[in-house]
């Protein structure tokens, strides 16, 4: 360590000059980064503007949801109608099977209605 006050003052002055030079570099870097951020912000604004529809352009979210709810309701009606038809088919199935069996022909052409079994043998 030096004891000469002049040397100490010159070291302090050089250190301050280095700090000022570093601050100038930092200020320049911050300015450049600020310019880049402004440019990115402007570009992002353009992208958002292009992706955002106008207020009167196309259906609103409420209209889309209302349409979906209506379609689900319509599907519910259709499904209930299909269920009723299936229930109706299940209750009429035994009669349909009997009619089909009476009119069906066996493997060799003999029908169940002619007192022959499904394999063509005479029914007892």
Word description of this protein:
- With 124 residues, the chain is mostly helical.
- The protein is built from two helices and no strands.
* Main β-sheet description: none
- The whole-number mean of residue pLDDT values reads 80
> Helix-strand pattern, N to C?
HH
Strand content: under 5%
- Please report the total strand number as a whole number: 0
- From the alpha carbons, calculate the radius of gyration and give it in angstroms: 46 Å
Gross morphology: rod-shaped
Alpha-carbon distance between the termini?
A: 130 Å
Count the helices. How many?
2
The residue fraction in helices comes out at: over 70%
Uncertain spans, ≥5 residues at pLDDT below 50?
A: none
Relevant terms:
mainly alpha, 124 residues
